[in-house]
Design goal:
The complex is a heterodimer of chains A (292) and B (292).
Chain A lengths: L1 H47 L1 H6 L3 E2 L6 E2 L2 H32 L2 H16 L2 H19 L8 H25 L3 H9 L4 H12 L1 H17 L2 H6 L16 H9 L4 H34 L1
Antiparallel strand pairs in A: 1-2
Helix pairs in contact in A: 1-12, 3-6, 3-9, 4-6, 5-6, 6-9, 7-8, 9-12, 11-12
Chain B lengths: L3 H41 L5 H5 L12 H32 L3 H16 L2 H15 L6 H26 L2 H9 L4 H12 L1 H17 L2 H4 L11 H6 L5 H12 L2 H32 L2 H4 L1
Helix pairs in contact in B: 1-13, 3-6, 3-9, 4-6, 5-6, 6-9, 7-8, 9-13, 12-13
Classes of the chains: A mainly alpha (292), B mainly alpha (292).
């Protein structure tokens, strides 16, 4: 009897220890990623000099006198993301308002799976279709020598962030208490006015969170952008071939060595810092939204 | 009083304008989804054949088959799911059932959120540094699947946690009341109740793994050799997404790229449908009226 009890306790305490470890492993993963990126990323920054690295305007990693300025990549990532938000946000926002407040149930249950599908399509497939449809179209419409440009990347990114903007916005629009809307309707506002002046205002931190999530998605996207943006290390310009932070890492990694390779890790570190800032903003917004 | 008429007119204009915007955006979004699906499916149909699905690429015979890529994808996803499942479910159990220090829970949840926000290209780099170089796995499917494990832990944790929370507290108390110890209770009462949630998490993770490419480029490699499981897992191999990228961007083989894109799209349909189906089933199971 005593024996049985002690083995019983033994398996229980082993189980709780194992679960504790499985929980803590996640912290270890994050630390692993941070530490590896910092260890791999700092040497090149030190060697090149942080000012020259971050604000240098020329990237010529394979030249005889190599230069490692990543300002073109940083600016391209920022412009590309901003462009994607400018196109994707209105599209996603109005779609979300319609689906959350005006669509009848049947329409909504047909459309929502389509949005989910859009979210699930792999990024290479977006890149592939962009490469075959969008890039030639841009080339013809704007009469360019090559359609692979920042503009093509912006459109692909806008489409890719659409599902997350729509879904988060719908969730936050639905979380608005019904009384707000009833009150507004009772004061004589029509449905549309109620929706855009009351419901949307009440849901604004959720919608802001959707935007920030979209920013995170867009800035971290690599493959689709690599297939449509042309990948030349130019300063960003709407109809020129450009390189993003992500594609800068991906396009040279396979043949890089020495300082060039270290510099690629430094780019990844810069990207990581960007992402961390975006995530912190997102958490803040979500928390604020949750408290209300 | 005089401007009531103009006020009413401007209100009407506002209403119509906003309604127009919403309808326009929703129809654009839907048109986009249909265009993507139709374009890929129609363009790929002429290239589908038994040959392309059952052979490997061979320069001698001039054939390109996608069988190795399909097998590599299956090996990769299976390995990653088998590893990520205990890790994720265990961590979720710790967080919802065992954790007694709110501070630690907060840190772990923050770590999981961070993991969810890191872009895949960074996972690819760290995976390359840690699994391929530091642990000496070389560029192999194993290194690729371990990278995917870290990427997908957050999904498994989140879905498991959600379904753990839907298990009524009374079940736990009843089980304790009958003298069950904690681990026994979790094993026999709590976990069976949230099988659906765990399976949903697996399907979501599978969907994400199927679509992943940037993280695999430098960890799993590009090879198209036909291998059994144990040879395959230790050697380099391209998954469907990576193969699509290589064929489309670097080799210009659009026929096979279309076939792969169509396969990926169909897989995406299937995973979306399955997770939707399970989510509905779960909602009904926990809704007493649905049980009637």
């Amino acid at each position: 009897m005593l024996d049985k009890k002690s083995s019983f306790n033994g398996s229980e305490s082993i189980a709780s220890l194992v679960f504790l470890i499985l929980g803590i492993v996640n912290i270890a993963f994050v630390l692993l990623i941070c530490i590896y990126l910092i260890i791999a990323g700092l040497p090149a920054i030190k060697e090149i000099g942080i000012i020259d690295f971050l604000f240098g305007t020329r990237w010529a990693s394979t030249a005889t006198e190599p230069e490692f300025g990543i300002l073109p990549f940083i600016l391209t990532s920022i412009y590309g993301t901003a462009g994607a938000i400018v196109i994707g946000l209105p599209l996603g926002f109005f779609s979300a308002v319609y689906l959350a407040k005006f669509a009848n149930k049947k329409v909504r249950t047909t459309i929502e799976p389509l949005i989910d599908l859009l979210a699930g399509i792999p990024s290479v497939v977006y890149g592939f279709v962009g490469m075959l449809v969008l890039v030639p179209a841009i080339q013809v419409i704007f009469n360019l020598p090559d359609g692979a440009s920042l503009f093509a990347a912006i459109i692909v990114l806008a489409i890719m962030i659409l599902p997350s903007i729509i879904k988060i916005s719908i969730t936050s629009l639905e979380a608005v208490p019904n009384e707000y809307e009833l009150g507004s309707l009772a004061l004589g506002a029509n449905e549309i006015e109620t929706c855009f002046r009351v419901t949307v205002k009440a849901a604004k931190s959720g919608i802001a969170a959707a935007v920030v999530l979209g920013v995170g998605r867009a800035i971290g996207e690599a493959m689709a952008v690599m297939m449509v943006a042309g990948n030349a290390a130019n300063m960003p310009s709407l109809f020129e071939s450009v390189r993003f932070l992500t594609t800068a890492v991906a396009s040279e990694m396979s043949y890089s060595s020495g300082l060039q390779r270290d510099a690629l890790f430094s780019i990844a570190l810069v990207l990581f810092v960007f992402i961390m800032l975006i995530n912190a903003t997102l958490n803040m917004l979500l928390k604020r939204g949750g408290k209300r | 009083m005089l401007n009531t008429a103009s006020n009413a007119a401007s209100r009407k204009l506002y209403k119509n304008f906003m309604r127009g915007c919403m309808l326009l955006c929703v129809s654009l979004t839907i048109a986009l989804v249909f265009f993507l699906i139709a374009y890929i499916l129609f363009r790929s149909i002429p290239y589908f054949s038994i040959d392309i699905l059952t052979t490997k690429p061979s320069y001698l015979r001039g054939t390109i088959g996608v069988l190795p890529d399909i097998l590599n994808t299956i090996y990769l996803v299976l390995t990653a799911i088998v590893i990520v499942l205990p890790l994720g479910v265990g961590a979720a159990i710790y967080l919802t059932e065992y954790a007694n220090s709110p501070k630690l829970v907060k840190v772990i949840e923050y770590a999981v959120e961070t993991l969810a926000g890191i872009p895949s290209i960074i996972y690819g780099l760290v995976g390359m540094l840690f699994f391929c170089q530091f642990l000496g796995f070389q560029t192999s499917l194993l290194a690729g699947s371990l990278t995917l494990v870290i990427m997908n832990i957050p999904i498994i944790i989140r879905t498991t946690q959600e379904s753990l929370k839907t298990v009524p507290q009374g079940y736990r108390e009843g089980s304790f009341g009958l003298g069950a110890a904690k681990f026994y209770m979790i094993r026999t009462v709590v976990l069976p109740c949230c099988i659906d949630g765990i399976v949903t998490g697996c399907i979501l993770a599978t969907g994400r793994m199927l679509g992943e490419s940037a993280a695999l480029l430098f960890t799993a490699g590009f090879a198209h050799t036909l291998n059994g499981y144990f040879d395959g897992i230790t050697s380099s191999g391209a998954t469907l997404t990576v193969a699509l990228y290589v064929y489309a961007k670097e080799q210009g083989e659009f026929e096979v790229a279309f076939v792969i894109a169509a396969i990926l799209l169909i897989l995406c349909f299937i995973t979306n449908y399955l997770s939707q189906y399970l989510a509905n089933r779960m909602r009904n199971a926990h809704n007493p009226q649905g049980q009637r």
